[in-house]
From TrEMBL, chains B, C:
Protein's name in the database: 2-oxoisovalerate dehydrogenase subunit alpha
High-level lineage: Bacteria, Pseudomonadati, Pseudomonadota, Alphaproteobacteria, Rhodobacterales
Alphabetized SUPFAM superfamilies for the sequence: Thiamin diphosphate-binding fold (THDP-binding)
Record EC number: 1.2.4.4
Catalytic reaction annotation: N(6)-[(R)-lipoyl]-L-lysyl-[protein] + 3-methyl-2-oxobutanoate + H(+) = N(6)-[(R)-S(8)-2-methylpropanoyldihydrolipoyl]-L-lysyl-[protein] + CO2
């Protein structure tokens, strides 16, 4: 199953098992979404459960907040993460704080799905990874799956969660695991073990990372597309790295991270978003604080550059396997 | 080719401090003149209602015209309305004083606008939901919410249901159909539409009421609300309280070139009414019309309540810096309390004596509540919510990082 | 108390794939019928213009009615208009083909909408500024911007003035009055108003033109633009291109219960016109009227251009999934190129032969430009901007952290 | 001079010396701003130069971008930083990227001023410090003055800057330096050396930190109100700390920071914003990377808690001198 199919499957399961779930967004209803994540759902579940909205991210999220506070569970789509900014006020000032400011009287159980990341020649408005803009906000949870299996389980967990969850979908791996080698033939989820997606409902708990590859020489922290880049980089570079797929950025599975780094004593942090104040900063800050006595080298970050995402030169922007491997080698060489 | 040097228009109120108040530009329509169309009339035929003004009480206190036609409205109900307004006014007066004594950090009054929220509430049913601004406490008062609890919120003491987390007057009561106030202007307008959509999707019969100030209609959320309400025909009443001022800027700034705020509805095919907001009966009549429309699945109605913010914006504001200090006394639509009082007296259902007595009773009630609230605490003294609670309700379940921080904080 | 189970309205287009196209609900007003008021007429008297449709070319190609009255419009100018549209269409066709060959990553066509941008541009003067969407390349073509340079932008090659930084078709040319396209829908609508405010504050005589699609009017920026344009009476023309579709959603979704998009102007006191967007002369006439108003310091005008997006939304879209595949052929307002061609022939200023010849000339011109552009490079071959340039223009001067990163990147 | 007067003075100078400067925002014109930062400017410079706007942060910033691209230099006020979110899309997607995406053809020289921080019992909607939401965005500069002298010089530099600058004004120190001891009498800028503000134009370069107190035992990184809290904490705690006032967060004066930390070998980072993904994360990440071999203790962060800013208990939220001193002692005790 592709990640798109897994997401659709999760939405289908949720719509079927919980009459409170609604699914809406731009082109989400009749058409089934520009990435087809909701294809067929309106036909199957009816248009009160899955419908099109006007092009207003503010309206989509604002209406979803009201609907959630009424008692439904909206799962909305922002067509690209790059277009979430008009809804940012509603997310930060409203969804995230409603439970707190009403002391639990009103709550906001909702999921905001959005495709993130580059690698599709989408340039500055179809490539961004704004996760750090969510992790800074108390009251939000932020999830980034790296494969179809997790996408379904995490999305169902997000829908079941009593609080607002930001669900970031790395669009470059919608149709196949992408290791950053943009010049090689595309591979399909079909041939990947995590492309196997169980039927029916299951959830993966929010806040649990998973070790994708055990290793002894250093720890690589990654999420989304970068998990695959990390695996390729350490594999090709013959690096004995432990690769951790964070899956949930907030709440963060700090224990899995610190256990690993205390073992390997070295750490590289990856993301596609710009460096400064990216989520990697938080990870580096936490790792140096928690593993100070174990660290044998500074935590290094490999990220997108501090520029907007370019079009033609997107592969020079993308933190591909070569940059990741080089960083790992640098960190390993520190004596 | 002609070349004119371009320039902008900078709209300004007719008078500024130092000059005499001047409402000669403000036309007061004759009471009873506006027609009362059927609730399923098409938006096109309702157009004039957005430019005129629905008024029921005339200068002599008579209820006149088609909007006065509320046969079920007993004298008791009318007296109750008066009492709600008196109570809100007394509450405001006490809290204003308390703020001067620094018992709460801040306060916001309703002086002159009491009819809007007090009357509107009477058209709602249990289960309906308001998405209010900070200037609709009348919705709580008229629904019987305990004044003592309101005061505890204002003081942020241990009796505050929202645990000292919010600015004073940012109440919340699900039971009383009063959604937690945000503080970010406008945001809740679209949420009200979403709540109403939720009710309709669930096949429920509850409706929502959205509230916004004249100045705040400029915010983006206003537009989102209009678009969504129009597109899905949501069961929501969209209220604009035009109290002439947005802190220091007059309503003409946000209104721009439009004849009224109600006119904003026309671009969306949303029926729009303009009502004398200082006329308790007019507000009630209009609220009933709009809520009936919503309940009958006829969709949203936009209501512009024309009123006047007689006091400062908040306790942090001194309006004499930007408008004549006696402007409130000259406001052509009068005082909502006096007008309903006059009406009741004209009906033979009230008297000057009973009014004085009612004022005294209400004040005693408020003072008693205040004593109880202060027995719990004020901002700087008495029992306040434990700081440990600060870490609660960020999430339903406290995640590890917050548990750690709470420990670090010593709890 | 009655209790009705509430429900929402989910608007849908009249027909869906599989059914026959049906525009029977779409009323085509008779050409020449709409009055042409003076530019300083009050918004109230212009009200009907937002619901009717200004049309100049009738079914026989005659220019009729008061909006046809453009005595300075020579045959040369009319022929030039036709040529601009032919050029845009030929350019689109070539770039579409190139995209199929993966020379650019992406492309967006104007098929069926050529008149809107090509005609509007002719009402502007040098120095005026458009804030366009991705579907107004006619503004560049009609202003004589080199097609080769446009292609270089589409290919993101080394000839691209914006250095491969933007998605194809996101052109930028200050000199040609074409503001850098954002990609975030709607954002530039308010910027156009701000630009116009800047011009007026500076006492300049330049005006701005804002552009937005029917679907994008739902965005918040649309509201901000209306509010600011109305409040300050900014010298700006606010264009809505209603091409019936916003990717897969039909215009009725964003329009909601309103009769037209133009009607949105009424809530702000902004005069609003609705024009046949497939009628080159009507667009030109309306554009002249609105730009004259702006230049005469009479403030903003809202224009709804009614047209049809005959092709897919972009090369990533297949419209047959959501509308009948032959719907474009049935669009009641016809084809803008054919209509202007018919008009010129009716005037005796054109012929079928000259048209074929012009098409060939234009295509040759475009093909020649394409060869030159491709000699520089396409997305995946030839010369592209150096990756080192990625670090330029983030700031005027490169700060230390970016210099460091550029070094790390190997430059 | 108070900080309010210093800011007003800077605006006055800018309006007088540069006909392209415009000043606008909510209540900014006739009334002179709810904090009085623009009082008298409309009267002096006319209403085309200083004017009131409708209540639309999106409109204010969006119009300013258009105006800046026309050729003027708008200096706009967002009434409270908590209300900048409706403008966030315009700031991030538009102002920050205009130069880049047009390859320098269109630019956006503008300043967005906004009062930040708590300590005035303003609760969740009048207390936020959103600096990390700006430092993550390529194309923006972010400035936070800590006193009247700097406020004027930095604001004039921000106005002269050819790019968009976010100018955050810690409202708690508008009228006097505040060291976090909320129970002590308020002090005035009058009696503070940095309350002395030179007349006429002068600029302080963006991107230069300043050492407010020299010390040998550890380095405290702070900005805005927290500079004063830091000074009080180390003074009262008898801590030999070097206190650095960052002044500009982006571009960051990394050299001053690393020189200090390499000397003191210990570092504490302060801010009022929530911890997770706050700007302190970036500082900690940079310091551990740049000073790894010098550090004798993990970099510690003292910040607001990861909750919304509460009202009644605001002093339990505010990272006051006690918490700062305790952190310094902890870091000093690491052996
Ligand atoms: C998004 C946002 N911007 C600005 C403010 C600051 N503010 C609080 S009240 C107010 C004026 C609102 O005026 P109006 O909408 O007319 O309501 P009124 O106070 O008159 O009831 C302003 C600007 C805010 N709370 N939220
Ligand atoms: C803020 C934002 N939201 C969503 C999108 C994705 N998107 C791109 S084009 C489009 C449809 C726009 O339709 P319309 O405004 O009618 O313009 P048209 O394409 O018909 O010219 C959408 C939803 C976007 N670019 N920006
Ligand atoms: Mg008001
Ligand atoms: Mg369209």
């Amino acid at each position: 199953m592709t990640m798109i199919e897994a997401i659709r499957d999760a939405l289908d399961v949720a719509l079927a098992q919980d009459p409170e779930v609604t699914v809406f967004g731009q082109d989400v209803g009749f058409f089934g979404g520009v990435f087809r994540c909701t294809a067929g759902l309106q036909k199957k579940h009816g248009e009160t459960r899955c419908f099109d909205t006007p092009i207003s991210e503010l309206g989509i999220v604002g209406a979803a907040i009201g609907m959630a506070s009424y008692g439904l569970k909206p799962v909305v789509e922002i067509q690209f993460a790059d277009y979430m900014y008009p809804a940012y006020d509603q997310i930060v000032s409203e969804a995230a704080r409603l439970r707190f400011r009403s002391a639990g009287e009103f709550t906001c159980p909702m999921v905001i799905r959005m495709p993130t990341g580059g690698g599709i020649f989408g340039a500055q408005t179809h490539s961004q990874s704004p996760e750090a803009l969510f992790t800074h906000v108390a009251g939000l949870k932020t999830v980034v799956p790296s494969n179809p299996h997790d996408a379904k389980g995490l999305l169902l967990a997000a829908i079941a969660d009593p609080d607002p969850v930001i669900f970031l979908e790395p669009k470059r791996i919608y149709n196949g695991p992408f290791d950053g080698h943009h010049n090689r033939p595309v591979t399909a989820w079909r041939s990947h073990p995590l492309g196997e997606v169980p039927e029916g409902p299951y959830t993966l708990p929010l806040g649990q990372a998973v070790i994708r590859r055990e290793g002894a020489a250093l720890t690589v922290l990654a999420y989304g597309t970068m998990v695959h880049v990390a695996l390729a980089a350490v594999q090709e570079g013959g690096i004995d790295a432990e690769v951790i797929d964070l899956r949930t950025l907030l709440p963060l599975d700090l224990e899995t991270i610190t256990t690993s780094v205390r073992k390997t004593r070295r750490c590289v942090v990856l993301h596609e978003a710009t460096l400064t104040s990216g989520f990697g900063a938080e990870l580096a800050a936490l790792v140096q604080a928690e593993c100070f006595w174990h660290l044998e080298a500074p935590v290094e970050r490999v990220t997108g550059w501090d520029t907007p995402y370019p079009h033609t030169n997107e592969w020079d922007y993308f933190p591909g396997p070569a940059r990741v491997a080089a960083a790992c080698h640098r960190v390993l060489e520190v004596k | 080719m002609t070349h004119t040097a371009l320039s902008l228009r900078f709209a300004a109120p007719d008078v500024r401090p130092g000059a005499a108040p001047d409402f000669s530009q403000f036309q007061v329509p004759v009471a009873g003149e506006m027609p009362r169309p059927a609730i399923d009339a098409t938006p096109e035929t309702l157009r004039d209602l957005a430019f005129g003004m629905i008024r029921v009480l005339d200068d002599t206190g008579q209820a006149v015209g088609p909007w006065a036609d509320m046969p079920d409205l007993t004298d008791d109900m009318r007296r109750e309305g008066l009492r709600h307004m008196l109570k809100l006014r007394a509450y405001d007066a006490r809290m204003l004083l308390a703020q001067r004594q620094q018992k709460p950090s801040f306060y916001m009054q309703h002086l002159g606008e009491e009819a809007v929220s007090c009357a509107f509430q009477r058209a709602l049913r249990p289960g309906d939901m308001n998405f209010p601004t900070y200037r609709q406490a009348g919705l709580l008062i008229a629904s019987g919410y305990p004044v003592k609890t309101m005061m505890c919120q204002v003081y942020g003491n241990d009796g505050d249901p929202v645990r000292g987390r919010q600015l004073p007057v940012f109440y919340s009561s699900k039971e009383h159909g009063f959604f937690s106030i945000s503080g970010n202007l406008g945001t809740q307008y679209i949420q009200a539409v979403g709540w109403a959509m939720g009710s309709a999707i669930a096949g429920d019969d509850k409706i929502a009421a959205a509230w916004i100030g004249d100045g705040s209609t400029a915010e983006s959320d206003f537009h989102a609300a209009m678009v969504f309400a129009s597109t899905y025909r949501a069961p929501v009443v969209l209220n604009i309280v035009n109290n002439q001022w947005a802190i220091s800027t007059f309503q003409g700034l946000a209104r721009g070139g439009a004849g009224s705020f109600a006119a904003r509805g026309h671009g969306f095919g949303i029926p729009a009414l303009r009502v004398d907001g200082n006329d308790y009966l007019a507000v009630l009549a209009v609220a009933r019309w709009a809520t009936e429309r919503a309940r009958a699945n006829l969709g949203p109605t936009l209501i512009e309540h024309v009123t006047y913010r007689a006091a400062g914006h908040s306790t942090s504001d001194d309006p004499s810096a930007y408008r004549p200090s006696d402007e409130d006394a000259c406001w052509p639509l009068g005082d909502p309390v006096l007008r309903l009082k006059q009406h009741l007296i004209a009906r033979g259902a009230w008297s000057a004596e009973r009014h004085i007595q009612a004022e005294a009773e209400v004040m005693a009630e408020i003072a008693a509540a205040q004593r109880k609230a202060e027995a719990i605490g004020t901002l700087h003294s008495g029992r306040r919510p434990s700081p440990a609670e600060m870490f609660d309700d960020v999430y339903a379940e406290m995640p590890p990082h917050l548990r750690r921080q709470r420990q670090q904080a010593g709890f």
